[in-house]
Amino acid sequence: xxxxxxxxxxxxxxxxxxxxxxxxxxxxxxxxxxxxxxxxxxxxxxxxxxxxxxxxxxxxxxxxxxxxxxxxxxxxxxxxxxxxxxxxxxxxxxxxxxxxxxxxxxxxxxxxxxxxxxxxxxxxxxxxxxxxxxxxxxxxxxxxxxxxxxxxxxxxxxxxxxxxxxxxxxxxxxxxxxxxxxxxxxxxxxxxxxxxxxxxxxxxxxxxxxxxxxxxxxxxxxxxxxxxxxxxxxxxxxxxxxxxxx
Length: 246
Ligand code: IPE
Ligand code: IPE
Ligand code: MG
Description:
Elements: H1 6-12, E1 18-22, H2 26-31, H3 37-55, E2 62-69, H4 77-93, H5 95-100, E3 104-108, H6 116-129, E4 136-143, H7 145-161, H8 172-176, E5 189-192, E6 211-214, H9 224-236
Parallel strand pairs: 1-2, 1-5, 2-4, 3-4, 5-6
Helix pairs in contact: 3-4, 4-6
The structure holds 3-methylbut-3-enyl trihydrogen diphosphate (IPE) (2 copies) and magnesium ion.
């Protein structure tokens, strides 16, 4: 049993804490066991459940998980198909439990590339949980920060072309409300697993002032104690937002 340290208790008293996670390392986890990469993806789903289960308890109000990137569509067909099967299974089996736990689910990303049955499951999950007031769980699927920004720019340009928006009125708020993350506060903390020190096109606009924590732990091994460790590291950071503290 992992104890919740005083540091984390103090975080829990904060009214808002958005943690974003790049869940990486499933393939390497499986390969190091002589198993196919897809075995790692299935095991990775258990880690998603563990993290979602303990998030609210640790004071996290918003959790955004990177499940599948725009660039991941260029992986082998068999791997994509298995990832979609896992996603389908997750949406069919886990949503009721999440709803009972008052979790509000939202999907970020490009739904046009997903199959109709998955889009329908996503819509149902969002509708069912829309009024829940507990953890906000955002799942980024077929998501890429550059695609998201490109879509936002197109939307804004159309509004300008239609005479509904003046170029001089374009500001941070207009851009925020044109992104998939409309209405979601920016992440405070971004965690990436698997030892890679990069962003891989995740939430490019939104992480402007997020604290970054990188861990060597492969995603299927990630659990509550790793999340606590990341939150402890976060609580020791001094966020200056360009200002001075001395
Ligand atoms: C993360 O694990 C899951 C997805 C990107 C879908 P990877 O599949 O990237 O695993 P590694 O990084 O190759 O080990
Ligand atoms: C980022 O991981 C995407 C997800 C975790 C869903 P990748 O494994 O695709 O990133 P790269 O290719 O190592 O940058
Ligand atoms: Mg990877």
